[in-house]
Amino acid sequence: MSMSLKKTLLSQRAAGLAPLSVGRLAATARERGAVDLASGVPLGNPPEAVLTAATAAMRAGRNQYAPAAGSPQLRAVVAERLSRDRAVVVDPEHEVTITSGATEGVLAALLACVDPGDEVLVPEPWFESYPGAVRLVGAVPRPVPLTLGDWRLDTDVIRAAITPRTRAILLNTPHNPTGRVFSAAEIAALMEICVRRDIVCITDEVYDSFVFGRCEMTSPLDLPSAREHVVAVGSFSKSLQMSGWRLGYCVAPPALSAGLRRVVERTTVCAPTPLQEGAAAVSAASSGAENFRATRDAMVERLAGAGLELFHPEGGWFVWSRIDRVTPLPAAEFAVRLLDEAGVLVAPGPAFFDDPRDGSRWIRTSFIRDPEIMDQGMKRLENFLRTAAW
């Protein structure tokens, strides 16, 4: 008897999810020992105090369920950090929920705030997993293009995209893939729309510890008049270099937090108890940007020197580059040939757009790399551009 899964046994929502394109290419890159300039993976390990506290919690027998809201100690760390770094007053008891990573945080926020058939606005280009997350909850993702080149939120475009079915907007700042840090004026204008139209802003802020130069991180949480319309999602993955621990959080008003916690109870039940205790042992770093300023500047300089047109990232971990000056190939084909012929992985642009053709001129690279590894990857890329036969 064939053990193959019949297509009719798979739900439409699961069948409609394509494998993440960067993940497919990354698996090939690992098999070939290629230089990965695409993935946003932390370089090192969590701080020693975090490892020690998590291990101690395991050995002390604290290995059973935590509250669905998360451990009180870790919720207090989140509230303290937001108060310290952004002067946001957060009640850890009623406004913070610990999740199994920011990915679950976004999905939990959508499940708590959006019903099947509702529409969710998603600024485009977008993080590749967002449209699938929206579809998983039975809602419809609606792309809202950022302004081409400087990647700004256009309030006229946002207003035009709103329909009677619009329930939420899924924001990301600092922005993946472009590196924009949306300004205080942009956030204020967006939240004015959300309040007037009774729309929830789900804001993914996993890179908020990585803001460069004179840019300042502004969150919808910073606006007291809009707090009732905000679910802010964060993560310890980047700031504490623990992406495999799957620890994130949501900050929301009490009514929304109560819904978020009911969702968590019915999905993961809770984030891992001893790992929560480990993360609570240190307060998340205020900023990790200075650790990567040099590699960011080096990658920007070398990509520009190779002829790519790019946006100088204000925050996050990525450089967003336009390739049509240096190759006639569309981005997906360019990425495959670069991997095959030069052993370098970049993220092709089509995955970041509703219409893949809109991403055919763009690639994303990550500067969160050991300088020697990044230099090796950039040399291969530069040589490929000099010698490739198109």
Name the descriptors.
single chain; seven-stranded mixed beta sheet; alpha/beta; 390 residues; 13 helices; Aspartate Aminotransferase, domain 1; Aspartate Aminotransferase, domain 2
Write a concise synopsis of the structure shown.
With 390 residues, this protein is an alpha/beta fold. The protein contains 13 helices and 13 strands.
Word description of this protein:
- The chain folds into two domains: 11-40 and 292-387, Aspartate Aminotransferase, domain 1, CATH 3.90.1150; 48-279, Type I PLP-dependent aspartate aminotransferase-like (Major domain) (Aspartate Aminotransferase, domain 2, 3-Layer(aba) Sandwich).
- The protein has helices at residues 12-15, 21-32, 48-59, 72-86, 101-113, 130-136, 155-161, 184-197, 254-265, 273-279, 293-305, 331-342, 371-387, and strands at 35-36, 96-99, 119-124, 140-145, 166-172, 200-204, 230-235, 248-251, 309-311, 318-322, 344-345, 347-348, 362-366.
- 49% of the residues are buried.
- The longest helix has 17 residues, at 371-387.
- The chain has 13 helices and 13 strands.
- It is an alpha/beta fold and 390 residues long.
- Helix 3 (48-59) packs antiparallel against helix 10 and helix 11 runs parallel beside helix 13.
- A seven-stranded mixed sheet has the order 2-8-7-6-5-3-4, sandwiched between helices. A four-stranded antiparallel sheet has the order 9-10-13-12. Strands 1-11 form a two-stranded parallel sheet.
